[in-house]
Amino acid sequence: MTRVMILATDGFEQAELMKPRENLEKAGIETTVVSLKSGEIKGWDQKDWGESVKVDMTLDDACADDFDALLLPGGQMNPDILRMDEGAIEMIKDFDSAGKPIAAICHAPWLLVEANIVDGKTVTGWPSVRTDLMNAGADVVDREVVTDGHIITSRKPEDIPAFSKALVNMLGRP
Predict the structure, then answer these.
(1) Is there a catalytic annotation at residue 63?
(2) Catalytic residue at 106?
(3) Which of 14, 108, 116, 134 is most buried, judged by most C-beta within 10 A?
């Protein structure tokens, strides 16, 4: 069974976790929500708090070796909190070192900057993170989905269908 870790915390952009997870599961891929704490994490739905999602596993109990890919939903708060957590950044580095797919959408490429894995890569992201991506050495473009090696990036919720498809394809699913 192909397994994807979804690393998120409170303030994740609701559509950017829910829709890709749904698309992955429709393709027969198992998803596991991993967070800094157990219980539930609360989504952000455009302009206000949204639905909560059950946390399947805490970051302390998770290991990149047990997963085939990493999905990083955006939202402003979620990646900003995660990029300050050493364990979250180490997890991203572990996926990168193993050459496993890492899919980051919207503000989530901030996490790729923090993990120091975008230098020389072509990526995209939400407009407000593009300067950070450039300063980290990335070639930034404005496209709905960009794949460079094992890194997939997208800009916004409207890009989710192409973003999901790119990850599903990279995992060898139809």
Answers:
(1) no
(2) yes
(3) 108
